Amino acid sequence: MSDTSATLQRIQALTEQLHHLNYQYYQRDISEISDQEFDQLLAELQQLEAEHPDLALPNSPTRRVGGTITKQFPTADHRYPMLSLGNTYSEDDLREFDERVQKGLEGAPYSYVCELKIDGVAMSLRYEHGQLTQGVTRGDGTRGDVVTANVRTIKTLPLALRPGDNRPEDFEVRGEVFLPLPVFEELNAEREQNGEALLANPRNAASGTLKLQNSAQVAARKLRFYAYSLLTPGRHFASHSAALEALTRYGLPVSDTWRRAATISEVLDFVHYWAKKRFDLPVATDGIVIKVDNLRQQDQLGYTAKSPRWAIAYKYPAEAARTRLNEVLYNVGRTGAVTPVAVLTPVPLAGTVVKRATLHNANQIEALDLRLGDLVFVEKGGEIIPKITGVDLDARPAGATPIQYPTACPACGTPLVRPEGEAHFRCPNERGCPPQLRARLEHYVSRKALNIDGLGAETVGRFFELGMVKTPADIYDLPARRPELVTLERLGEKSIDNLITGIEASRQVPFPRVLFGMGIRYVGETVAQKLAAHYRGIDALMVASAEEMAAVPEVGGVIAVAAAHWFQQPENRQLIERLRQAGVQLEVTGEAPVPASDRLAGLTFVLSGVFEQHSRDELQQLIISNGGKITGSISKKLSYLVAGENMGPAKREKALGFKVPIISETDLMALLPAPDEVRSPEMAPEEEALRPPAPPAAGPGQQGLLF
Ligand code: IVH
Predict the structure, then answer these.
(1) Taking a C-beta distance cutoff of 8 angstroms, is the pair 589, 510 a contact?
(2) Do the Cβ atoms of 682 and 529 come closer than 8 Å?
(3) Mean pLDDT computed over 425-429
(4) Same domain, 336 and 252
């Protein structure tokens, strides 16, 4: 056998094995091998593909990370039009639908399939010879955007189907792309921390994500997909339910909530069952879809111009509640923006008890003509964030007091300002307003900034409240203040060790993330990367004018003015000097960029012993710039112990005891992106981990099907 054909065989075998393992892991919650073994197989395949790019298979499991940049999405015609469904909010309408079906089928027996209506974005996928070849959005129903690179990043979506099973050679799968609620909430929490506008609901978030031009950013957003129909050129199945079962067998994600219903009253049972239960699901649903099961009967019933006559969507009414407005609190954010929050008499709404609702800004309070003591209507926008939509004026109590919007900061008393064109009032006391200082510290230690292990938002907030830390630079004094730290309650020796190791390690965090962590208004992750890549270091940035900065791609005038102003402030210059003395990275290091990715996101490492190919600092920097964390002590939560020469036997024993994998320096390097995947610092740092994340501690769980 020639070398090439042996290599090809190995590539094929690895590809097949990894596809199989992914299927087991994501669709069936089964881990056949350890994460480490999985990583090794993936690394082997990556290496072979790097050495023989011509032999790499188009749907290789190494190609899920994204990295494709699409300037403008091409469009494609749908082979079968993507119609929408007729909607109803009433049970009577459902009964009428059933009567129409009965009439249309001329008395023949029939049954239904009921499914949840997932609130996401419709997607059409094409599988040819078992390979995912195209993903197209609904568009205008006849033509949509080709977003294949982006849908390929959806981890639960098989790129290659399992062989066999009398599968059609060419078929289309329709379904819904969505963002799981916990991911949506995390995304919004991050946006709030960064002072960015919040996403209204998971559907908008999913649709915006699908349209991102950089698929590596899409990968980081953790989209999911549920299939709800299978289309083939000929008639391949007798019923819709048989098609759903086949999709499941092929390895496609199908929500297992669907049920057959023999009668309309069984349909209504399904509707009633999910009316409340749907709020327990980690995905937004806005109704139920009812479909005639038999495909021949579907054809018989046919279509109107817009929608099928054999299906209907029942939408749950947006849930609203009436409750009393007791107080309005004012939150002060990192940038000084003041946001009013309504404090309500607790009221159950759409699966949760609502106690607070956002009021957005002063304009909204005025527009609603709100008074303290009013009975107000609360709704969940897109089922998620409660908001006040109106006042029950008939029930207004005699003494209801108009809301006095504060003229001074509720936290520090400084008169508020409202810059022209902005909806928010702001506290201009950037240097002394406690909630602003605290929020800036929380931002500095946050995951996408310095990501300091052992120092989360809560701990740094505690240090702030105790007066121990006021600015990010104070964090670097903490290791020398151990005697003080040990006197604090709920902070054991081990936590202090971790904290100190985390702080020391954060000195290796690359400059763009430090710049982002400084919390300059409007300077998000991407802008920080652009500025860092252009100026290479803080010194050049400190003397740059707003005009100069505005000329850097993606740095607009407003951002440039804010950044230039920030660098001129004496206290910020002082902060920079102190960070410099603390040894924090204030320059882009070296000629070649350190490989950067999120490949090690969620993983923690302990380094022990002496290493051959890299210094310990280099290894730390590699781990951190790929999203991992360094920690000081070995616990059962540790992901890897990286062992060098002369590693202490106690460490080894402890790691073995906790079943923590012990890996070598070479193993560590194999976990990192291959050199051809190394991004220049201009690119976004979000890159999806290639390997499946470790199953949650609670047992095999929620990685695959959500419900
Ligand atoms: S069936 C002919 N089933 O709801 C239309 N649609 O207007 C076939 N949707 O945007 C659609 N969950 O993407 C169907 N289980 C489900 C669904 C579902 C959500 C979406 C669909 C479309 C809208 C229907």
Answers:
(1) yes
(2) yes
(3) 94
(4) no
Name the CA dihedral angle for 624, 629, 631, 634, rounded to a multiple of 10 degrees: -130
Write the Ramachandran bin of 615: left for phi over 0, alpha for psi from -120 to 50, otherwise beta. beta
Higher pLDDT, 389 or 598: 389
- Picking from 504, 497, 499, the residue whose alpha carbon sits closest to that of residue 633 is 497
172-181, 187-196, 479-488, 618-627: least confidently modelled range = 187-196
Question: What CATH number did the domain enclosing 24 receive?
Answer: 1.10.287.610
The per-residue pLDDT for 590 is 59
pLDDT of res. 61: 83
Write out the residue range of the structural domain in which residue 194 sits: 84-315
CB atoms within 10 A of CB 12: 12
Provide CB contacts within 8 A for 136, sequence distance 6+.
76, 78, 123, 124, 126, 144, 145, 146, 147
**Residue at 130 is within a domain:** yes
- Specify the DSSP class assigned to residue 275: H
Supply 673's token pair. Answer: 């992106």
Model confidence pLDDT, tens digit, residues 158-208:
999 877 677 898 999 999 999 998 898 888 877 766 666 667 778 888 988
Ligand 1 neighbour 86 (Cβ under 6 A)? no
Ligand 1 contact, 230 CB (< 6 A): no
Give the pLDDT confidence score for residue 705 in this predicted structure. Answer: 37
Does the predicted TM-score (pTM) go above 0.90? no
- Domain check: are 149 and 272 in the same one? yes
Q: Single out the residue of 103, 129, 357, 217 nearest to residue 687, CA to CA.
A: 217
DSSP 544-556: --HHHHHTSTT--
Q: Domain tally for the chain?
A: 5
* Domain harbouring 324, CATH code: 2.40.50.140
Q: Which of 88, 113, 121, 176 to mutate to test the pocket of ligand 1 (most atoms within 8 A of CB)?
A: 176
191 vs 563, higher pLDDT: 563
> Helix (H) and strand (E) counts for the chain?
25, 23
Whether the per-residue pLDDT at 695 is higher than 70: the answer is no
- With contact defined as beta carbons under 8 Å apart, do 62 and 690 qualify? yes
Find out whether the beta carbon of 118 lies less than 6 Å from any atom of ligand 1.
yes
Q: What is the pLDDT of residue 459?
A: 93
Both structure tokens of 326? 């007791």
Q: Quick one: which H or E segment has residue 329?
A: strand 320-332
Query: Are 283 and 372 in the same domain?
Result: no
| 176 annotated as belonging to a binding site for a ligand | yes
- 390 C-beta closer than 6 A to ligand 1: no
Domain boundary among 458, 478, 506: 506
pLDDT attached to residue 71: 62
The catalytic residues are 117
Residue 671 amino acid letter? L
Q: Which atom of ligand 1 is nearest to the CA of 291?
A: 1
Long-range contacts of 576-581 (CB under 8 A, 24+ apart): 576/538, 576/542, 578/471, 578/473, 578/476, 579/472, 579/473, 579/476, 579/514, 580/538
Ligand 1 center to 380 CA (angstroms): 22
Tokens matching residue 46: 């990556």
